[in-house]
TrEMBL record, chain A:
CDD domains: F1-ATPase_delta (cd12152). This is ATP synthase epsilon chain. Produces ATP from ADP in the presence of a proton gradient across the membrane. It is a peripheral membrane protein. Its main location: membrane. PANTHER family: ATP SYNTHASE DELTA/EPSILON CHAIN, ATP SYNTHASE EPSILON CHAIN, CHLOROPLASTIC. GO terms for molecular function: ATP binding; proton-transporting ATP synthase activity, rotational mechanism.
From TrEMBL, chain B:
The keyword Transport applies. It is a peripheral membrane protein. The gene is atpG. Its main location: membrane. This is ATP synthase gamma chain. Belongs to the ATPase gamma chain family. Transmembrane segments: none annotated. It comes from the Bacteria. CDD domains: F1-ATPase_gamma. One of its GO terms (biological process) is proton motive force-driven plasma membrane ATP synthesis.
Length: 124, 304
């Protein structure tokens, strides 16, 4: 069996996903970072962006994460986010509407949020 | 039906209606307590991980941050008071308000100015009625607070603490909320939220755990910069959730005793009504007996 790490994707008000994975790719403020089992202890600030988790069963879990942290130690990875949604929870039509509305109103933060959701939904 | 009896009957009807309402409110509150408790539990993983991360940065580096540095002389403090929007919760709100007032008094005795921030219509009404200054207030979400609400509350507070005292900023932040101990016990307590003492945070983290030497991305300062406001938000969120759970528990208890009292009242009133009915019947019987005796006497007289 390949080496595994335990991943917990936690939003402020619930645990979104947890399980075993072989690779996690997330976007930190200084660029994309990939974490595999045995990575050195890490604590980073996440940007809004999609997070990709390759599970040990070979599947892929994609989540849209808006702000937060990544912390890794002892083969345990925690992704803390104020808001986190799995790609299959994302309502694409709603996100598209949001995107248009945000563009029309020039709301940069909302536009980025909607964009991240759409990209995460597209990656599933 | 006699007038007396009618009055009793009417009162019984009205108390029964009240009892139905309080019973319903009791059951609603009971289900909401459970829901609120579940929300507290759901927010625990985030809070735990965040505490761990703050501990890690706090112990792994010697970075200084405005949110963790104690001002040499504290001239102004902020007090955040969490109350509820709605009453009918026994002494819930008055206990929280009382705790806030005690704290304010203590801070003022220490020569500090106090800025008051209030969550919940009840607390706000209390302060407005006494024409006390409220720096900022939020209402409308105390029954089911969300994380976005906590962010809304935390933002101006963090801003105030980062500002210089001379420009109207504050040096420390206290929070007064009602801790949910159990279904039967909720205590109003005050807690100093900021400046954060990293030693205290470290104490909250599980004991005996040696934290690894973290690699900070992009740097320890930046991580701390991003981490501390989130930590404060999550603490406020937790306090909001506990307050909500306590409020529902207090409502449940208040409504339960209201229902019990209504039951007692109905019992007493129906005893009185029964006595009045019995008295009426007795009177009617004695009237009939008296009447027939008088008739018998009269007819006996005519017979003679």
């Amino acid at each position: 069996m390949a080496a595994e790490l335990h991943v917990a994707l936690v939003a402020a008000d619930r645990e979104v996903w947890s399980g075993q994975a072989t690779l996690v790719v997330a976007r930190t403020t200084s660029g994309d970072i990939g974490v595999m089992p045995g990575h050195q202890p890490l604590l980073g600030v996440l940007e809004s962006g999609p997070v990709t988790i390759r599970t040990s069963e070979g599947g892929t879990v994609v989540a849209a994460v808006h702000g937060g942290f990544i912390s890794f130690a002892d083969n345990k990875l925690s992704l803390l986010a104020e808001i986190a949604e799995l790609s299959d929870e994302i309502d694409v039509q709603r996100a598209e509407r949001e995107l248009e509305r945000a563009k029309a109103e020039g709301d940069a933060a909302a536009e980025r949020r909607a964009d991240v959701r759409l990209r995460a939904a597209a990656a599933r | 039906m006699g007038a007396q009896l009618r009055v009793y009957k009417r009162r019984i009807r009205s108390v029964t209606a009240t009892k139905k309402i309080t019973k319903a409110m009791e059951m609603i509150a009971a289900s909401r307590v459970v829901k609120a408790q579940r929300k507290v539990a759901a927010s625990t993983p985030y809070a735990k991980e965040l505490t761990r991360a703050v501990t890690a940065v706090g112990t792994g580096s010697n970075t200084k941050h405005p949110l963790t540095t104690q001002a040499e002389t504290v001239t102004r403090s902020a007090v955040l008071l969490l109350t509820s929007d709605r009453g009918l919760a026994g002494a819930f709100n008055s206990n929280a308000i009382k705790a806030a007032e005690l704290l304010t008094e203590r801070l003022e005795r220490e020569g500090k100015q106090v800025d008051t921030y209030i969550v919940g219509r009840r607390g706000l009404a209390h302060y407005n009625f006494r024409e006390r200054k409220v720096s900022e207030s939020w209402t409308g979400f105390t029954d089911q607070p969300t994380y976005a609400d906590a962010k809304k509350v935390a933002a101006p507070l963090i801003e105030a603490i980062e500002k210089d005292t001379a420009d109207g900023g504050v040096d420390e932040l206290h929070i007064v909320f009602t801790e949910f101990v159990s279904m039967m016990t909720q205590t109003a307590l005050d807690d100093r939220l900021l400046p954060l003492s990293l030693e205290d945070v470290a104490k909250e983290a599980p004991k005996g755990e040696i934290l690894p030497l973290y690699d900070f991305e992009p740097s320890a300062e930046d991580v701390l910069d991003a981490l501390l406001p989130r930590y404060v938000e999550s603490r406020i969120y937790n306090a909001l959730l506990q307050s909500a759970a306590s409020k529902h528990a207090a409502t449940r208890r208040a409504m339960k005793s209201a229902t019990d009292n209504a039951g007692d009242l109905i019992e007493n009133l129906s005893r009185l009504a029964n006595a009045a009915r019995q008295a009426e019947i007795t009177q009617e019987i004695s009237e009939i007996v008296g009447g027939s005796a008088a008739l018998a006497d009269a007819s006996a007289g005519s017979d003679r």
